[in-house]
Structure formats: C-alpha cells, structure tokens
Amino acid sequence: MTPSEHEMPLMEHLVELRRRIIYVLIVFVLALAGGLFAAGSVYNWLIRSGSAKAFQLNAFSFWDGIGIYMKIAMIIGIAVALPFACYQLWKFVSPGLRPQERSATLRYVPYVLLLFMIGAAFAYFIIFPMAIQFTSSVTKSMGLQETYGIAQYFTFMFNIVLPVALLFELPLLIMFLTGIRVLTPMRLRKWRKISYFLLVFVAVVITPPDFISDFLVAIPLLVLYEASVYLSSVVYRKQLRAQEEREAQLRVAAE
C-alpha cells in the first residue's frame, strides 16, 4: 500500500531525526574516548584544588578509580557534544525557517559551550564548596568521623555541577525557541510564576538544606530567566521588524 501524502513527510522527518541523533551519538562517543585521555590531568587538578584538599579520600571498591575516570570523561564528552547536538538540532529545523531566522539561530551555537563552562565554574567554585561545608559541619556536629570514598565525593560533586551547567543554557534555549517561533516573550511572562517555582525547586534540590545556599543558587537562576525573557523580546522584535519589511516589499511589488 502506498503511503499517503501526509505520511511521507512524517516518515522523512523521523528518518532525518534518527540520522541527526546518530551523528550526535558518534561525536559523543569520540569525545568520551578523548575524555578518557584527559581524565587523568583533570582528576589531578580537581584533587589538588578546592574542597578535595580538606579530605583524605579512600577507594572502597576496585572499580572506584575507573568509575571516576569514566565520570570525568562523560562530563568532557557532554561538554564537547553539546554544541554539536545544538548544531544538529538547528540543521533539523532550519529547512522550515526563513533565511534571516536560519542565520540568526545559527549564531547561538558557538555560545553553548561558553555558557556550559560558566555554569560549571559557578557550580564548582561557589555552590559545591557551600554544600561540602554544610554537610561536613553537620557530620562533625554529630560526632562522626569523616571517612569518605572517592566515588562518593565525585558523585556528589557531579550531581551539583552538571545540572547547574545545563541550566545556564536556558537563555540560549529560549532565544532559539523564540527564533523558530515556538516561544514568545508574552508567553514567557505569562509563565513567570510557574517558572520561578520550578527554578526555586531545582535550587532547593541541588543545594544543601539551608536557606543561604538555596538563596545563592535560586537568585542566579531567576536572573537567568529574566535575562532569557529580555533576550526573547529582542529576538521577537527583530522578527516583527523583518516581517513588516517583507510585507512592505510585497505591497510595493504589488503596486
């Protein structure tokens, strides 16, 4: 049976989406392999800087060392593959965009890695030390001896750093969705209360259970959201101006 005219485009889109996902997975695996070579240097830097210097970390399993290298390599793989994944997403949706929108949204891709690194640095140098200080103070107040495993230390760190690094992509994500006409600044303002609640909830989940830590994380996330709304407005106004110019050109051509 011959597929209908409506089914053919859908199947073509699904095949194209699968192809883009395969490309992203290939790049991620290659970056993961490269990350394994860099994991030793990154591990030495992490273990000699910041909060790790305050603890005598132990291995409680034969696989702890390998597991740490794999986690570091995974973070490197995500950081490298993320801009490429965004580029593949742009390639997937670009046929449905106007030429001006196509070039405008492509400009966001180079900033993906930059925002990821800024978010990771914010999480590692500000949030993570606060979390360590809070949990350590609670442990000492209970009269317990601090004996930590290397796997638990890095898992605790990555569970904080990775979500915050990804949340810092919010402005670019909203600008991109505005550029392809999925979001508008009016809709974002309408969703402000719900978005605030979700961002505060995320801040509470990824930080120690004290008000100061929650506040220091929630405020930057809310600022990111407001910056996203403003940037969405900028993109939206440019779209309206471009649309008015096209309509004016059509009227002149018709006359």
Describe the protein in words.
Helix 2 packs parallel to helix 5. The longest helix has 44 residues. The N terminus is likely disordered. The chain is built from nine helices and no strands. The protein is mostly helical and 255 residues long. It is globular, with a radius of gyration of 23 Å. The chain is 80% helix and 0% strand. It starts with 6 loop residues before the first helix and ends with a helix. This is Preprotein translocase subunit TatC.
Which key features would you list for this structure?
single chain; about 260 residues; mainly alpha; about 80% helix; disordered N terminus
The class by helix and strand makeup works out as mainly alpha
Measured by DSSP, the beta-strand proportion falls in: under 5%
Please count the helical segments.
9
Rg from Cα: 23 Å
| Number of distinct beta strands | 0
- C-alpha geometry: globular
Residues in helix, %: over 70%
Q: What is the ordering of alpha helices and beta strands?
A: HHHHHHHHH
**Mean pLDDT, nearest integer?**
84
From the N-terminal CA to the C-terminal CA, the straight-line distance is: 49 Å
Low-confidence segments, ≥5 residues, pLDDT <50? Answer: 1-8
Task: Outline the biggest β-sheet.
Answer: none
Organism: Paenibacillus jamilae
Protein name: Preprotein translocase subunit TatC
